[in-house]
Design goal:
Elements (H helix, E strand, L loop, with lengths): L2 H12 E8 L5 H11 L24 H6 L7 E6 L2 E7 L7 H8 L4 E7 L6 H13 L3 E6 L8 H12 L2 E4 L1 E6 L2 E7 L4 E5 L12 E4 L4 H7 L1 H17 L5 H5 L3 E6 L8 H11 L6 E3 L2 E3 L7 E9 L8 E9 L2 E2 L3 E4 L4 E4 L4 E4 L2 E4 L2 E2 L4 E5 L9 E3 L17 E7 L5 H13 L4 E5 L6 E6 L3 H14 L3 E5 L4 E7 L17 E5 L4 E5 L2 H10 L3 E4 L9
Helix pairs in contact: 4-5, 7-8, 11-12
């Protein structure tokens, strides 16, 4: 075994890379903060709903996120805990951000699903869960907000199974009745954890009082009735519940379930320790050359996110790279698959939200941010030049909302074009040019309406451009081709005037129509036309 091979083996075993998925408001950003608090990365958790101060969550860095209290872009956070190196990718929970979220889920080895104890499984959770299921990645469940009145734990288990089609195995069980919880029973260690009173409003790590189950002090604190109810529940779980099966967890068929409250730090440490013990280390990835194992000594990785202007003072642009194999070293030269060129990876950075530091080395499972002069695109593969290949493409989403966008001040056309190009490269918007129209305006397509707000906000704040935006009445986009390979033009397409004929950035013809009915008419009148939801060279998400 070579020295590099030993080093890789040791580092890979330490890595856990995961994303937190949930519906907006289930408490995902708060949980992220509390995990960092336990990891010693932040000393005082700036709870979003904190009463004492108006600090914003560490992982939400864009101003629009601070105003709305939502995560708009996925941040990357890294910390060490108990001998492990943890990489958390925070995903936007807002329904409009499925694309960025989807890409983030391509870069992780497992996911943590946060569920609100009162609301159960919500719409956005279903969508994100589906993506994890498609990829077969292990899912761990954290039932949050136990400090509030909520559904019975047994009902939540049923709901997860009925709605998401995955069985759950509770690793701990809430102690209390009618949503009034006092602690949890840890099934694996057969211990009772009761929580000390929280006097800091969740700003500091809370210590649990740990008892043996038969300690009389437990009954004294929780009361005879609650204690009996807990015993009955545990007996039922042991007899009728799922068996714990690590293989099923790894294939995404069984989810280990933890109960707690991120807001009051209740059960968070218990969850973190359980997660580290069970979660997978970095996994192999599919490529044009078959599976690439993380312990392959030759370096490789892929770009899953591009973010401009994270630091407004520097007008910088970063490409986020998930390392898949080998050892990353600062200033190393690698082969960039899309351009076919050798490039040097300078100024690599790691993150704690906005705080960054230059790093010298990184290993599979780690995420590094590389200064990007404009060469990287989403989904790009970088690898050792002695073994060239390409990682499997990211699926793309068909746009559903469209607007005509132009700069209010024609003198600012240059900044306008630069800003629009930048946001397109980040994958925040899809860009189209109307056939026969001038270059003053663009047609912008997005998956959801909130992205238009972000577009307007960022053009104003980062490029100093005010825009006029006119929403278009189209909801369906189709990429076009004739079966015989002849060119599709507005003149060669019957009924092109029933929608808007545009070209995408690569010059491919696309038709925007207002509904499926109009689409049906076009199909009937152009029998030799092929219609695609996404560009012909891409796979649909």
């Amino acid at each position: 075994m070579s020295a590099l091979s030993e080093e890789l083996d040791k580092e890979i075993k330490k890595r856990r890379t995961f994303a937190i998925i949930s519906h907006p408001d289930a408490g995902k950003t708060t949980l992220t903060e509390k995990l960092l608090l336990y990891g010693g990365a932040i000393h005082l958790a700036g709870s979003i709903k904190s009463r004492k101060t108006q600090r914003h969550a560490v992982s939400d860095w864009m101003e629009i996120e601070k105003q709305r209290g939502i995560s708009v872009t996925s941040s990357v956070l890294q910390f060490d805990y108990d001998g492990c190196r943890i990489n958390i990718l925070d995903t936007p929970g807002h329904q409009d951000f499925s694309e960025d979220t989807y890409r983030t889920l391509m870069a992780v080895d497992s996911a943590v699903m946060v569920i609100d104890v009162a609301k159960g499984v919500e719409a956005q959770t279903k969508k994100l869960f589906k993506v994890c299921k498609q990829r077969g990645i292990p899912i761990f469940t954290f039932v949050n907000k136990l400090d509030h009145y909520g559904k019975l734990p047994i009902d939540l288990m049923d709901e997860i199974e009925n709605v998401l089609g995955i069985r759950s195995y509770p690793m701990n069980w809430p102690i209390g009745q009618d949503g009034q919880y006092m602690g949890v029973y840890d099934r694996r260690n057969d211990k009772v954890l009761l929580f000390a009173a929280d006097t800091t409003h969740g700003q500091q790590a809370r210590i649990a009082d740990v008892y043996e189950p038969d300690d009389p002090a437990v009954i004294e604190r929780v009361g005879e009735e609650t204690w009996q109810a807990l015993k009955d529940d545990i007996e039922l779980l042991d007899e009728a519940g799922e068996e714990f099966d690590m293989e099923k967890v790894n294939s995404g068929e069984l989810t280990p379930m933890f109960f707690g409250s991120a807001m009051t730090n209740f059960g968070v440490q218990d969850f973190l320790e359980g997660y580290i013990r069970m979660a997978p280390t970095p996994q192999p990835r599919m490529s044009s050359d078959g599976l690439i194992a993380p312990d392959d000594e030759k370096f490789s990785g892929f770009v899953f996110k591009i973010q401009a202007n994270m630091n407004p003072a520097h007008r910088d642009r970063l490409a986020f790279i998930r390392i898949c194999s080998g050892k990353f070293e600062r200033n190393m030269s690698v082969w960039h698959e899309r351009s076919g060129k050798i490039i040097k990876l300078a100024q690599p950075q790691q993150f704690l939200a906005q705080d960054r530091q230059i790093i010298d080395t990184a290993y599979p499972g780690d995420i590094v941010g590389l200064f990007d002069p404009g060469i990287f695109g989403i989904g790009d593969t970088i690898c050792d030049e002695s073994h060239k290949f390409k990682y499997a493409d990211f699926p793309v989403f068909p746009p559903e909302k469209f607007a005509r966008v132009q700069a209010k001040d024609t003198m600012k056309r240059k900044q306008f074009v630069k800003g629009i190009e930048q946001l397109t490269q980040e994958g925040a918007i899809q860009l189209f040019q109307q056939a026969g129209a001038g270059m003053e305006s663009y047609i912008v397509g997005t998956v959801g309406t909130l992205q238009f707000e972000v577009l307007e906000y960022r053009l104003k704040n980062e490029y100093n451009v005010d825009i006029t935006m006119n929403m278009q009445p189209y909801e369906v986009a189709r990429w076009l081709a004739f079966k015989d390979g002849s060119e599709v033009t507005p003149a060669s397409l019957r009924g092109a005037d029933r929608g808007m004929f545009v070209y995408d950035r690569k010059g491919n013809p696309v038709l925007l129509v207002s509904n499926e009915w109009a689409l049906g008419w076009i199909m009937d009148n152009n029998p030799d036309l092929i219609l695609n939801h996404v560009p012909f060279d891409r796979k649909e998400a």
